[in-house]
Amino acid sequence: MSEKETRGMEQTSAKVSSAEAKKKKAKYTMAKIIVILCAVLCVVLTVFELGVTYRTMKAVEVDGTEYSVAEYNWLYTNSVYEIYNSYYMTYGEMASYIFNPSGNLSEMVYNQETGETWAEYVKEYTDKTIVEMTALLRAGEEAGHVLDEEFYERCDEEWNALATTAASNGYSVSDYAEMSYGRGVNEKVFREMYERYYYAFTYAESVSDSFEFNSEEKDAYYEENAEDFDTVTYNYYFVSSSAKEGEDADAIKAEAKATAEAVLSGEKEVEFTEAGYALKAATNSVYADWVFDEARTAGDKEMFEGETGYYVVEFVEENDLHHNMVNVRHILVTAADSTEEAKAEALEKAEKYLAEWKELGETEENFATVAGKYSEDSSAEYGGLIENIYKGRTVEGFEDWCFDPARKTGDTDIVYSQYGYHVMYFCGEGAEYYDYIVEAAMRNENINTYLDGIVEGLEASDLFGAKYVGKHFG
Question: Contact at 8 Å (CB) between 341 and 428?
Answer without folding.
Answer: no
